[in-house]
What does this fold into?
Amino acid sequence: MDRLGVPYVTPWTGEAIAPLPVTVTMVGAAYEDPVADAIARDQDGVLWVVCRGMATGKPEYAAELHPERQKATMEGFLCARCRKPAARDDRGMLWVLPFLGEPESWEGLQSAIPPMCEACAQMVPRLCPELREGHVQLRVREAELVGVRGTLYPRPDRPGVPDPDALVLYDSPGLPFVVARQVVRELRQVTVVAFSAAIH
Ligand SMILES: [Zn+2]
It folds into this structure.
């Protein structure tokens, strides 16, 4: 948990993503600086944004989750707020997601929001403006890592501009052309535990 109970994954105004120059060739996107490029790649060779700054200033609840902390909690099944292991029972792992109108099904939902522990699942909706507008509690038996969300660059032989918010699956030919900011899990064998309306 961070200062003032702010969720671990929430970015702060003192933090930013470094605007490193990117080059795109037929083999993919890369940072112009080869050292920065090597450091910024994960074990799968996926290129990630480089985070700068410190968790100072104000928490930015409306912003995208902090890339490094989102990846760490998501990959480790750690609670998004306190970094303890996420809650698990016989229905699976606990996920709390914004509820902005009923989707056809929660089954197969692709989420960039990490799971939570029981205590934080009760508290976080009061802190987070997005969850305060309504949220759903799910139990999830399977949550495979399926891809990343980030900026997708067009191949050099195709016209177009970068898509700043693309979901790129690990088995997609676009994977070498993305600069990732979030990992995404696909939620399966989902049980809906509770809906909560807006808290005001
Ligand atoms: Zn927690």
